[in-house]
Amino acid sequence: MGSTAPYIRVWLDVPSQDEEKLARLEQKRPVDADTALRNNATVMREVATRLTARYECAG
Description:
- The chain is mainly α and 59 residues long.
- It has helices at 19-24, 33-54.
- 0% of the residues are buried.
Protein backbone atom coordinates (compact mmCIF):
# COMPACT_ATOMS: atom_id res chain seq x y z
CA MET A 1 0.00 0.00 0.00
CA GLY A 2 2.65 2.53 1.03
CA SER A 3 2.25 6.14 1.96
CA THR A 4 3.72 9.44 0.87
CA ALA A 5 3.12 11.00 4.29
CA PRO A 6 6.42 11.62 6.09
CA TYR A 7 4.91 11.11 9.56
CA ILE A 8 2.09 9.44 11.37
CA ARG A 9 0.55 10.81 14.53
CA VAL A 10 -0.86 8.62 17.29
CA TRP A 11 -2.01 9.44 20.79
CA LEU A 12 -3.22 7.55 23.78
CA ASP A 13 -5.96 8.76 26.11
CA VAL A 14 -5.29 7.59 29.64
CA PRO A 15 -7.03 8.21 32.95
CA SER A 16 -5.87 11.28 34.84
CA GLN A 17 -2.83 10.90 37.07
CA ASP A 18 -3.27 14.42 38.51
CA GLU A 19 -3.07 14.11 42.29
CA GLU A 20 -5.30 17.15 42.96
CA LYS A 21 -8.05 15.97 40.62
CA LEU A 22 -7.94 12.46 42.07
CA ALA A 23 -8.13 13.86 45.61
CA ARG A 24 -11.14 16.00 44.65
CA LEU A 25 -12.87 12.91 43.28
CA GLU A 26 -11.80 10.96 46.37
CA GLN A 27 -10.00 8.41 44.22
CA LYS A 28 -6.56 6.90 44.42
CA ARG A 29 -4.15 6.55 41.55
CA PRO A 30 -4.82 3.12 39.95
CA VAL A 31 -1.09 2.44 39.46
CA ASP A 32 2.05 4.32 40.42
CA ALA A 33 3.27 6.96 37.96
CA ASP A 34 6.41 5.06 36.87
CA THR A 35 4.43 1.95 36.01
CA ALA A 36 1.83 3.97 34.11
CA LEU A 37 4.51 5.78 32.11
CA ARG A 38 6.31 2.54 31.27
CA ASN A 39 3.07 0.83 30.21
CA ASN A 40 1.98 3.80 28.08
CA ALA A 41 5.37 3.92 26.35
CA THR A 42 5.13 0.19 25.60
CA VAL A 43 1.66 0.60 24.11
CA MET A 44 2.74 3.54 21.94
CA ARG A 45 5.79 1.67 20.62
CA GLU A 46 3.58 -1.28 19.69
CA VAL A 47 1.09 1.03 17.93
CA ALA A 48 3.86 2.73 15.96
CA THR A 49 5.39 -0.61 14.98
CA ARG A 50 2.09 -2.02 13.75
CA LEU A 51 1.11 1.13 11.85
CA THR A 52 4.44 1.41 10.06
CA ALA A 53 4.25 -2.25 9.09
CA ARG A 54 0.65 -1.98 7.92
CA TYR A 55 1.21 1.11 5.79
CA GLU A 56 4.71 0.12 4.68
CA CYS A 57 6.27 3.36 5.85
CA ALA A 58 9.07 2.01 8.06
CA GLY A 59 12.28 3.81 7.36
